[in-house]
Amino acid sequence: MTHEIPGADTLPTELREAFFAYERAILANDLDELDRWFFDDPRTMRGDDAGLLVGHEAISAFRGLRGGVPARDIERIEHRALSDDTSLIVSVSRFRIGGRGLQTQLWQRTPDGWRITSAHVSGRPQPLNRAMWRTVGDPLFQGAWEGPLAGKTVAVKDLFAIKGYRIGAGNPTYVDTVAAEPRTAPAVTDLLRAGASLRGIARTDEFAYSVAGDNAHYGTPPNGALPGALPGGSSSGPASAVATGQADIGLATDTAGSIRVPASYQGLWGLRTTHGLVPRAGLLPLAQSFDTIGWIARDGVTLQAAADWCLSYDGSESTERVYGESGRDLPWRFRVPNEVLEAVEPETRDAFEAFLDALDAPVERVDIGLLDDYQEPFRLVQGAEAWRNNGDWIREHPGALGTAVAARFRAAAEVTRDDEARARAALVPLKRRIDDLVADAQLVMPTVPGPAPMRTSDGAKVDAVRMATLRMTTPVAVAGVPALTVPLLTVPSRLGPAPVGVCVASRAETDIALVRAGRRLASCIEGISA
């Protein structure tokens, strides 16, 4: 009985009825009723450990993807009347599966009765977010006790070999059918030697064949910058782990944008290294002609430390050469691809133009050619290689893939040898064009068309954003040059102010200098940690 709950009798009758009606709606996951109890106003707020939502629309969208809460009982209520029409309620809940939570709500009397105008929820502590992590430890593997990355933690994308573990590739059937790895990938051991510890193995989109960040089997990792939005993929797990503070560095891959996209969506720094600069031993491939290893971090200092160590130290297993060009600063000149700028959303274009206005450097507008001319041959070569790498396994395990990824592999299976040969020939002049443009300057452009889509967006919307994004990200992949995304733009979205990255690409093997250039760009923008 509600009157037996300590503190319940301090609530005025109408407010008490409203409070417990809302609680019943939570337990029933009655979305319409929940929407009714939150004040329908763009200033209504709801916060939890994932972040702050502002506006009734954003809160409603979040609720649609949450899926309800575990059964719980209110065991205590504290009420403070702030005025005749405003009350603060703090309640303690006990979950029947164990654990407690805390809800703080500001209720206001409106013409329609009492409604919640602000709320903060401290939910039941979660031991492991399985949408983000496959396995995690504190740490899972200890790194060297000294080194430039001492004290840092790493989230490793579930495509890299870890001794004693199976590669999961974002698919539960796959992880059950492969053997444990006999040794750890050099890209992982390099970070351990630098003093970083392995926090855990983080989720990836299935076989890294997506840029959205959703996974049909394990769910969608949270977007640490924009609650209720997709995290971006296929390096979704490492990016989310870094954005939510559960790791300092994400070790990831980028084939068509899988570092750049999640980094942009979640307000992170992300480096796609020169193709082939970091050897891919111990990495499950998608498309070897484009697969590239790189890192994700919350700030430029950490990313610089990882790049400096992994790309230049004498004992590195990842790269045996020291790249002298990376020791020199890049020329402070920039070129903006007109075709990319034409492909972005209007709010992104406005924010990017304002960024250029603040940039104290020569900026030239250039043509790189139709984006479809890059994306289509890239798609064919990627598909041909993806099917060669995974086709036999897919045929042996029908029904093992999620719907969207399965469709991509069906299309990949249809790429003929002649299709692939023509596509490879078409890529040669396109690579030469990008190489010429970055020979004495850097390309600079928005990383993606706009903010991360909402997690409640339908499949057609997500696929449309995916295709628009790939048109922007493939020219750099075609050229195989390094590309850095820096969180320099903020644009409006239905979920609130959202990050969008600025992508800077330079000539091959200037990766370390590129990170320095990105930090210099960030220093020009107030509020960015360089």
Overall geometry: globular
Which regions are unreliable across 5 or more consecutive residues at pLDDT < 50? 320-324
The CATH architecture designation of the largest domain is Alpha-Beta Complex
CATH class bucket of the largest domain: Alpha Beta
Count all strands and give the number.
17
Look up the CATH topology of the largest domain.
Answer: Amidase signature (AS) enzymes
Sheet bearing the most strands, described? 11 strands, mixed
**Overall mean confidence score, pLDDT:** 93
Q: Which class do the helix and strand fractions yield? A: alpha/beta
CATH superfamily of the largest domain: Amidase signature (AS) domain
Helix content: 25-40%
Q: Please report the number of helical segments.
A: 15
State which percent range the strand residues make up: 15-25%
**Rg (C-alpha, Å):** 25 Å
Tell me the number of structural domains. Answer: 2
What separation lies between the terminal Cα atoms?
56 Å
| Lateral strand order in the biggest sheet | 7-9-8-10-12-11-16-17-15-13-14
Observed structural traits:
35% helix, eleven-stranded mixed sheet, alpha/beta, single chain, Nuclear Transport Factor 2, Chain: A
Characterize the structure shown.
- The protein is α/β, with parallel strands linked by helices.
- It folds into two domains: 2-122, Nuclear Transport Factor 2, Chain: A (Roll); 133-371 and 406-523, Alpha-Beta Complex (Amidase signature (AS) enzymes).
- Helix content is 35%, strand content 22%.
- The strands form two sheets. Strands 7-9-8-10-12-11-16-17-15-13-14 form an eleven-stranded mixed sheet, sandwiched between helices. Strands 2-1-6-5-4-3 form a six-stranded mixed sheet, with helices on one face.
- Helix 1 (13-28) packs antiparallel against helix 2, helix 8 (300-312) packs antiparallel against helix 15 and helix 11 (371-396) crosses helix 12.
- The termini are far apart.
